[in-house]
Amino acid sequence: MARLTLDDLKKIKEKQKATFTLREGGYRAKVTVHMGTCGIAAGARDVMTALMDEIAQAKVEDVITTTSGCAGLCAREPMVTVEIMNKPPVKYGDLTDAKIREIFKEHIMGGNPVDKYALVVGSETTY
Could you give the residue ranges of the DSSP H alpha helices within 4-127? Predict the structure, then answer.
């Protein structure tokens, strides 16, 4: 087995920190990517990858991502639900990697929901 480098240890530390933050609820925004079979077939993996890229590029530590199964609107997949602390959640549908990047910048970072992609506002919370 190869020895761990300092970079390896830093990566492990960051992963554990992210897990701890999630468990403790220390976040201001939560993004759920709906990844049921229908969502995956419609491109949810590409949406998740683009979202994770945006989070990494922005070096944001108070935004978490999670996945769920089908949200029941298979024809509108891929979908995500964005929950910002003290704001009503917004469910977005018919997403692409470009659309989730726009949602990340405008809604998650800027606080302004992107109405043209929104399916519904409200009705779900985790806090």
Answer: 6-24, 37-42, 44-58, 97-103
Token pair of 73 as six digits: 């609107």
Q: Which two tokens stand for residue 42?
A: 């419609």
Residue 28 · residue 61 · CB < 8 Å: no
The rounded distance, in Å, linking the Cα atoms of 84 and 72 is 22
Non-local (6+) Cβ contacts of 35 within 8 A are 44, 45, 48, 67, 68, 69
Contact 63, 27 (CB under 8 A): yes
Dmax (CA) of the chain: 52
- H or E stretch at 59: none
Q: Convert the pLDDT of each residue in 77-96 to its tens digit.
A: 999 999 998 889 999 999 99
53 with 45: CB under 8 angstroms? no
List the CATH code of the domain at 26-121. 3.40.30.10
Q: Look up the pTM and report it.
A: 0.77
